[in-house]
From TrEMBL:
Plays an important role in the de novo pathway of purine nucleotide biosynthesis. Catalyzes the first committed step in the biosynthesis of AMP from IMP. Keywords: Cytoplasm, GTP-binding, Ligase, Magnesium, Metal-binding, Nucleotide-binding, Purine biosynthesis. Binds 1 Mg(2+) ion per subunit. GO terms for biological process: 'de novo' AMP biosynthetic process; IMP metabolic process. It comes from the Bacteria. It comes from Phenylobacterium hankyongense. Pfam families: Adenylsucc_synt. The lineage of its organism: Bacteria, Pseudomonadati, Pseudomonadota, Alphaproteobacteria, Caulobacterales. This is Adenylosuccinate synthetase.
Amino acid sequence: MANVTVIGAQWGDEGKGKLVDWLSNRADVVVRFQGGHNAGHTLVVGDQVYKLSLLPSGVVQGKLSVIGNGVVVDPWHLLAEIEKLGGQGVKITPELLVLADNACLILPLHRDLDQAREAAAVNKIGTTGRGIGPAYEDKVGRRAIRVADLADREALEAKIDRLLAHHAPLRRGLGLPEADGAALLAELEAMAPKILPFAKPAWLLLDKVVKSGKRVLFEGAQGALLDVDHGTYPYVTSSNTVAGQAAAGSGLGPKGTGYVLGIVKAYTTRVGGGPFPTELEDEVGQHLGTVGKEFGVVTGRARRCGWFDAALVRQSVALNGISGIALTKLDVLDGLPTLKICTGYRNGDEEIGYLPAGLKAQAALVPVYEELEGWSETTQGARTWRDLPANAVKYVRRIEELIGAPVALLSTSPQRDDTILVRDPFQD
């Protein structure tokens, strides 16, 4: 049976939540493999709206859901999210949710450090201030506290001492009060009995699941262009967001990630600072932001909006080994008389078809556009190709040509069932 890896192919906010929720019907297990609660997924099911930041989207449909070792976990936020979903009628139990016992924790001191550093920075990255970056730093620095440590007081005490030895001078330098190790230990011990029932060797579970022939859906957070290696560094997140991370962040291995589905918005957005060659600061940009409701699920920040950038998505297709894309928010373009697609860039006298790594080169880029005629009819709620205006079909087909990947699904509204299926990613 085929597995599927879902990743954002732009700067995040492409509508992954709805597509993962839709694909969960065909999956047996849903796995989060990177990031933290700095990403938000909105699921609209009938008149019910679910907003998830850490929990895999599969929990809403009662599918076995796994938070993998590649995720950094704020345990207090996780418990709050579980409680919130419970209030919406979705009961999260250890039979439904598995938390990798080797996942690293986000602690209050990580949040303090994240917010203090961003406040002091001249060129701000645009972090959510939730402690994600500092938690990954401690993971790489081999001083993190992991989920399994919550069951071992002796190990926990020693790890807290090591952690505070690193954080103490950082906090002093930023004018933060000294962290209280005893208070942190008490907080962790009080929280541990609520978290530990979910803790298991996730890699072992997934190995058994795959060998039994069940289907696994890997759910990425953020987008490939925010990858710490391959994104618009330093305006990126603190983890690898590309499809290859699904293997490392779950423990399943590279053969298990299967069909790679890239989620692509019919235009382009990004949150926070960093390069954005096709950004629009005119009435069209305002239209995209207003009609598309482009505000962050986690922060509420307005997203920057611009024309579709085929050069960026083409780069993402290569970096992720994308098999096919799910194109979302086509309906936001309804009524625009003329549409533009960026096919590449000019950098002085040179024309290039990719985003260079250097900040100076990125800032100098001028997008090269191709114009297409828009459509006046509505695409919202379309469920077959026949329901789409001819010019909308032409727009979709031109995107396929420019990015070098076919459309597997087309989403025409936030509603789960407003989806045109071209190819089932789970098809063997």
